[in-house]
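Sequence only, no structure available. Ideas?
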Amino acid sequence: MESPVNLSPTPVATYQLSIKDVFERLSDREQLYAHHLSRAAWHGARIILRQTSPEGTGIFDFILELHKACGGQWGVFTDHYGLTIEELHSFLDYAGMFMSKMNNFCGEGDRKIVPAVSADSLRKMAGISQAATAALEAVVEPMLSLTPSALTLSESTYYLGNDKVTFDEIAAIARAMQLNDLEPENTRVRKSIENDKTVYQVLQASAQSNDELQDHIKGSAIPIDVLQPDSKLNGTVRLVRGDHSMEMTKICGHLLQAVRFAANDTQARFILDYLESFTSGSLEAYRRSMKNWVSILRLIYTLGYPNWKPCLPKGLLS
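Reply:
I predicted one. C-alpha cells follow.
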C-alpha cells in the first residue's frame, strides 16, 4: 500500500483556468444556460465529498469558511494570525489539491492527502471566525492523521451504519439489485439490525423519496421498497430513494432554469432527461440524456455519476 501524500517537500503546481474571454463570447442565452448547469454541478460537490471519506465535507466547509472570512486575501494569516509564509503556502497547496480532487484522497481512494501544517497552525487560521473554528475542530484529527492511508471497505462512506458489511454481503446485494433491474452507480448501502433481523438499505440518490415517487414508478420492473432477495443473503434488502435529496433538489432547480435557455429541442431533451434521472433515480433516463449529450456541439456539460463507484469485488457485475 502506498504511503499518504504529504505536501511538505515540494509545492503543488497550480494553474488558473481562464474562461472569461470564452464566456463573454457566448450569447446572453448561452451564458444563462452555462451558468445554471455550472451551479447544478457545484451543488453536486457535497455528494461527491459525502460518499468518500467521513471528514471530506467538514474539510470542505473549513476551507470555504476561511476563504469567506478572509475575503480571499490569504495574506492576512501571515500578517495577523501568526503563520509563516511557508505554512500558508503549505496549507494553500493542500486546499488546492483537496478542491481539485473533491476529497482528501487521490485516485480511487488509494492515497490520502495530508497537509504539512500543524494542528496549532490550523487553529491559528481558524481563529479568524467562530465558524472556521467549529469546522476545524470537527475534522482536525482525521484531517492530519496518516491513517487510514487509503479508503478501504470499512472507511468508505459507500457503506454506512455501525454494522460492517462484508464482501460476501456486497456481492449478494449486487446480485439482488441485478434481479430487480437496479444498477449501483447512484447508490450506497446501509446495514442495520432491526428486531434481530439484518436489513440492507440500498440508498438511491434522487430528489424525491419512495412515497413521493410511488405513483410515478407504479408498474415499473423496479420495486417501490422491498427487493427480491438473493438466495445467499440472509436478510431483507430495501430500496430507499431520496439519498442526497437536499442537493439533488437544488440540482434539479437549476436544471429547470437551464431548460428555459436551451438553444434547441435536443438541448432541452438532454436537460429534461437529467431532470427525470435526478428526480427519480432512474439510470435509464440518465442514459437517454447521454445519447442526446453527444450530439450537442457547442456547449458541452455532463453531470452524473463518474465518481459514484461502490467498492465491489472485481468482476462482480460483469
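The longest strand covers residues 197-205.
Hope that gets you unstuck.
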